[in-house]
Design a protein that fits this description.
By secondary structure, the chain is mostly helical. It has a single domain, classed as Ferritin (Up-down Bundle), CATH 1.20.1260. A 3-stranded antiparallel sheet has the order 2-1-3. A hairpin with a 5-residue loop joins strand 1 and strand 2. Helix 1 runs antiparallel to helix 6, helix 4 runs antiparallel to helix 6 and helix 5 packs antiparallel against helix 7. The longest helix is centred in the first third of the chain and has 31 residues. The radius of gyration is 19 Å and the shape is globular.
Length: about 240
């Protein structure tokens, strides 16, 4: 049977819709598994509740992903602050400094996502959860697990969806998150490997006030993630 042009268009629409549905399920599943946000919360903040003007601004898939990322990073900030307090109590001063720097990084990057959401007509209201606090070692392992999952599985899919929806700002936000999470991985690994050495406080960590990039030392003229001048970094202890 011959396939008409109209049939091909309809088939493409069905495949695209199916891909967006799968991406949304993946995002909900991964964030729920990490304890960042509940499926109910994601559904409650779905852009379906937005006015039609917002729906014309961007595809629903990318708005869903932005909402999910904003909630996840807002919760990560609170987690990091709670974990910093625990690290201080256990005497791991440098680990506490790292967690406080991570909290600042998440605050800045969550703000980046919030700005994109607003520009698309959405309302960035995160679904907050009570942080789960365990030992400092366990908290470091949880942080490493969460950020590895986000950088390798979750955000790459968000980037592809933003490309498909032609939302440049969202693609940049998700892309920078991947770089930031990947860059923090060696710090978590170093702390876990030799936690005793992290009892003594260091000079702190440097955080870019533009994108949230986090490094221990500045050996560059421009931020490796966003290109901002090195002077835009602040020290967090």
């Amino acid at each position: 049977m011959a396939v008409t042009g109209a049939s091909l268009v309809e088939t493409k629409k069905v495949k695209t819709a199916g891909r967006e549905k799968c991406m949304k399920k993946l995002a909900i599943g991964l964030l729920f598994a990490a304890g960042r946000v509940s499926p109910r919360g994601l559904c409650a903040q779905s852009p379906k509740a937005l006015p039609h003007s917002a729906m014309h601004a961007a595809a629903q898939g990318t708005l869903d992903n932005l909402m999910a990322a904003f909630s996840a990073e807002s919760n990560s900030r609170e987690e990091a602050l709670a974990w910093a307090k625990k690290a201080d109590e256990e005497g791991y001063k440098k680990a506490a400094q790292l967690f406080r720097a991570v909290a600042k990084s998440e605050e800045i990057h969550a703000g980046f996502h919030a700005g994109v959401i607003k520009s698309l007509g959405g309302k960035p209201v995160p679904e907050m959860k009570t942080p789960v606090v365990k030992s400092t070692r366990e908290n470091l392992e949880r942080a490493l697990q969460n950020e590895t999952m986000s950088a390798e599985k979750l955000y790459p899919g968000f980037v592809e969806q933003a490309k498909a929806d032609n939302v440049k700002e969202a693609r940049m936000a998700f892309g920078s998150a991947i770089k930031i999470y990947s860059g923090r991985k060696p710090l978590y690994e170093a702390a876990i490997k030799n936690l005793k050495a992290w009892k003594k406080a260091s000079r702190g960590f440097m955080v870019c006030t533009v994108c949230g990039e986090l490094v221990e030392h500045i050996n560059f003229m421009k931020c490796p993630v966003c290109g901002a001048a090195a002077g835009k970094f602040i020290r967090v202890r």
